[in-house]
Write a structure and sequence with these properties.
The complex is a heterodimer of chains A (193) and B (526).
Chain A (H helix, E strand, L loop, with lengths): L30 H17 L3 H7 L1 H13 L5 H18 L1 H11 L21 H19 L47
Helix pairs in contact in A: 1-2, 1-4, 1-6, 4-5, 4-6
Chain B lengths: L2 E7 L3 H13 L5 E4 L10 H9 L18 E2 L40 H5 L9 H14 L2 E2 L25 H9 L5 E2 L2 E2 L21 H10 L6 E4 L2 E8 L5 E8 L5 E11 L2 H11 L24 E9 L15 E3 L13 E5 L8 H6 L4 H8 L3 E9 L8 E8 L5 E6 L4 H20 L3 E7 L34 E3 L14 H23 L1
The chains are: A mainly alpha (193), B alpha/beta (526).
């Protein structure tokens, strides 16, 4: 049985829809639409603290992602336009700060409970709100983390005997390589001599 | 009908080396390459963003995997197939190096004399020292990075590139290795372009992890190779025997138009992998070869063997340094038990799992966790995993044959009759117990052990090399016994499986075969 959590948002957010990615023709979003989507991305950084400063540095990579996801099939244009409208409704209802707080930390996309234990639960995307969270917010979070946001998490410490290099932390998706020639490619282990 | 100089069936790692070396020697060679799969673009930005940001992280070549429903392997005592086919290979332009991990290890000298050393399995008709110069060429070709201070086997040349260093997450396992007199090593990996360490090796956005597709694309685009052609979606269905000792060509179907074509060549090289080649040989019956080409002694498809992965997972109660796995490949390995002394008991190649400790920060954020709680979780309990490949010996009764029906590429389905021997089962259990001691030495609690069902990634033995036709399918030069112009270059020709990944050895064999063919051609033209 799915865990229902549809108490967030108003009439638009609760509008039912099929689960698949909304069909749309490839198109170029307007500057205003891109700016509104950017606000979602920037608020991710702000709400997880310290990641915000990283957001600003990621705009060019983020723009590339938006471009390829809207201008190539299957296009995300409809999902992005939907997300803009859903967020606007949430902001109207709760104010910006609380709207994002609820969306990021309280709202859970319903998932099914598979009978077979080895199967992963599937998201049940039956509302415009669920689509916004799954196709837009969640993907923006992944993008932000892999593009540099991960650097603001994790431990960095030194124990006696071994030195664990604190510089040079790496993460899946992060482009490091020769960009930073003087840094280690990852946190390395050095044997005690 | 125009006769080609060469027809190569398949377009993967071996096929690409052969095409490159033959064409570089003589750019005007009429070389036709026939690939059943399609061209799947690499380094494509949308695909990479899908892979890294979508919930299910799809990869563009996954649709080419064998379907689970196509599996026609023997069912074991636990009511499950004894051999898994799904996920083990990519059917596309460039072949399975589109999805491989890039681990590039040489076999060791004793691997070539398994029967002499242990009384089990078979010896290769060549030895390590004969293949050694070609290992060096293969490492150069694939830009293998490795540790010049290690001496797991004799080498005439150093690695082309220095190794990836051990990561901080390897530290505790390295200490445990030392405490148990296991020598830690650095995993040699094939890097083709400058690695940007994105950890998305399965679909590298820069072409850093070696893939035959990159080389093949360069060959196709080379304006000097005017008689080189690659046809995709072209399924070879029959090898045409002109006589008992001579092949004239092949039949193939164009999957887009369903037209059937016959093409001829002076020499044919089969590079379509350890599954498809034996099936093609068996399907190619005629008055000259009643049981299929090269199959008079009923050895085609036999001795099929692969590596089963063994795993032991340990749980640490805390992760005070906040470590997570930072590459998409293991940096720590050991070949201490991949040794002549261990050979009769089943060699063991140990490596630290590339995915642990697993910290998915984005998922924790998606689940609504605060930054404070995420940091607590990162420093909280975590898992480390030790994995190993165990060498198994191909058995006569373990065999691959043509299954019922065809897959969506028009290739016949694969039937695999396989049963792990009791001896291999017991060995695996013994190795698992040993691996547990390593995990426990790390101060971890063992929470899970696992013996993987054999999967086809490292399949070998189905057309094995031998000194005589009575004991194998191909000779020391990879020529099908008693046929003048048919060659096989695939993992299928391996006479033993060793304990390590096969691709570097396959690439070395391809370099050797290419040199042999080029010398033959030079002699013929002289």
């Amino acid at each position: 049985m799915a865990q229902e959590n549809n108490t967030l948002g108003g009439k638009l957010s609760q509008t039912t829809i099929t689960a698949n990615l909304m069909f749309s023709e490839p198109c170029t979003l307007s500057a205003s639409q891109i700016e509104k989507l950017w606000q979602i991305f920037a608020h991710i950084g702000e709400h997880w603290k310290d990641v915000y400063n990283e957001s600003k540095n990621l705009k060019s990579a983020w723009l590339e992602m938006i471009k390829v996801k809207t201008e190539q099939q299957p296009s995300y244009s409809a999902e992005y336009k939907n997300a803009i409208l859903v967020i606007e409704e949430l902001i109207q209802l709760y104010g910006a700060q609380e709207a994002y707080q609820k969306l990021f930390f309280s709202y859970k996309v319903p998932h099914n409970q598979p009978e077979n234990e080895t199967e992963k639960p599937h998201a049940i995307l039956t509302t415009l709100l669920a689509h916004t969270k799954y196709y837009v917010v969640d993907e923006f979070i992944r993008m932000q983390v892999l593009s540099g946001g991960f650097k603001h998490f994790g431990g960095q410490s030194k124990t006696s005997g071994e030195v664990i290099k604190v510089k040079g932390v790496n993460y899946k998706g992060y482009v490091k390589g020769s960009r930073y020639n003087n840094e280690q490619l990852a946190r390395i282990f050095e044997q005690k001599t | 009908m125009e006769e080609h100089d060469y027809i190569i069936v398949g377009s993967g790692a071996a096929a690409t080396v052969l095409a490159k070396k033959i064409l570089e020697k003589n750019p005007l060679t009429k070389l036709l390459m026939l690939e059943a799969g399609d061209l799947i673009p690499a380094k494509e930005r949308r695909q990479w963003w899908n892979y890294t940001t979508c919930a299910d992280g799809p990869l563009p070549y996954q649709y080419t995997y064998d379907k689970k429903s196509d599996n026609q392997s023997t069912i074991g005592k636990d009511d499950k197939p004894t051999w898994t086919t799904s996920g083990g290979r990519v059917r596309a332009f460039g072949g399975s190096t589109m999805h491989w991990g890039g681990w590039a290890l040489r076999f060791k000298p004793e691997d070539f004399q398994l029967f002499t050393n242990t009384g089990q399995g078979a010896d290769w008709p060549i030895d390590y020292h004969e293949l050694e110069p070609y290992y060096a060429q293969a490492e150069e070709y694939m830009s293998v990075c490795g540790d010049e201070n290690e001496s797991w086997q004799p080498r005439s040349t150093p690695y082309p590139i220095p190794p990836f260093e051990w990561t901080a997450a390897d530290g505790e396992m390295i200490k445990a290795f030392h405490a148990l007199d296991i020598q830690p090593g650095k995993m040699p990996v094939a890097r083709y372009r400058k690695c940007m360490t994105t950890g998305t090796c399965k679909y590298c956005p820069y072409g850093a992890r070696f893939s035959a597709q990159y080389v093949l694309q360069d060959l196709v685009e080379n304006p000097n190779f005017i008689n080189f052609k690659v046809l995709t979606q072209s399924v070879v269905t029959n090898i045409i025997a002109k006589s008992k000792t001579q092949i004239s060509g092949v039949d193939y179907i164009n999957n887009q138009t369903n037209e059937v074509f016959t093409v001829t060549a002076k020499k044919i090289i089969l590079c379509a992998g350890a599954y498809e080649i034996p099936k093609l040989l068996m399907a190619s019956t005629s008055k000259h070869w009643l049981h299929g080409i090269g199959n008079d002694h009923d050895l085609v498809g036999r001795f099929i063997v692969t590596h089963s992965m063994l795993e032991v997972t340990g749980r640490a109660s805390s992760n005070p340094h906040g470590l997570w796995q930072e590459y998409d490949f293991p940096t720590l390995m050991s070949r201490t038990y991949d040794s002549p002394e261990q050979q009769k008991n089943g060699k063991l190649f140990l490596f630290k799992d590339r995915t642990r400790p697993k910290i998915d920060i984005a998922q924790l954020m998606i689940d609504g966790m605060s930054k404070v709680d995420i940091n607590k979780k990162i420093r909280g309990a975590c898992e480390f995993k030790l994995q190993a490949f165990m060498e198994e010996v191909g058995q006569y009764d373990s065999r691959l044959s043509i299954g019922e029906g065809k897959d969506r590429f028009g290739l016949p389905l694969t039937k695999i009759d396989y049963q792990k021997t009791e001896e291999d089962d017991k060995r695996a259990d013994t190795h698992i117990e040993f691996m547990k001691t390593i995990i426990e030495k790390m101060g971890l609690e063992v929470v899970k052990t696992f013996k993987q069902t054999p999967r086809g990634d490292h399949t070998t033995g189905t057309c094995r090399m031998s000194a005589t036709a009575e004991t194998g399918v191909t000779d020391a030069n990879l020529k099908v016994h008693n046929i003048a112009n048919l060659y096989i270059c695939s993992n299928g020709v391996f006479s033993s499986n060793s304990a390590v990944n096969p691709t570097l050895t396959l690439t070395a064999l391809a370099h050797r075969l290419a040199e042999h063919l080029n010398q033959q051609d030079e002699t013929a033209h002289a």
